[in-house]
Amino acid sequence: MNFVLTYKEIIIIIIPAAILFFTGKTLLSRKNKKMVANNMLYNVYLPIYKEIEPYLYKELSHETGIKVIRLVNTLADKYYELFNPTCLQAYKSFRNNFFYHNKKNDTSYEEFCYLIERDYEKLKRELHLPRETFLQRLTGENGKFQLRMLMFELLEKFTSVLFIISVGLIIIMFLRLLLIFYEFVIY
Prior knowledge:
- This protein has two domains: 36-131, no CATH class; 138-187.
- Helix content is 78%, strand content 0%.
- The chain contains six helices and no strands.
- The protein has helices at residues 7-52, 62-78, 85-99, 107-126, 134-138, 145-186.
- The longest helix is centred in the first third of the chain and has 46 residues, at 7-52.
């Protein structure tokens, strides 16, 4: 028995299968990402942010520094896989400078504050939770890393817009190539 498919039949079979595959993959990964983001926010970043929020980018007392370090150590032991590796590295640098070099307020603490605040706001945005407005963050009292946080958000918004535009252009090009191929096969 000779079973031969034409190009048109192959295209009719492959395109819906590919669309179904990518749609399913996207929807399943989105649900999993929200679950992980929810765990990260409520188990790691919210407790840390509540603890350090009054002291963001400010001078730490020795007791407060020890309290923050104990909290982060406890959370890192329990939820190590939920920590952003960059944030964990900044925390270790802050902890080492705090204990071994006796520097209570250096750039490692500021970097740790920045990363905690950035990841906290990013997770809130991902979970569609209420956040401060752009104007409130612009006129906030958080000090020198505030501009850095705003630059990060602007860059993130800009790249997401570019990504959407590029995906749209790729889809248009693919449809155009498909139309050209379809005309070539028919004629």
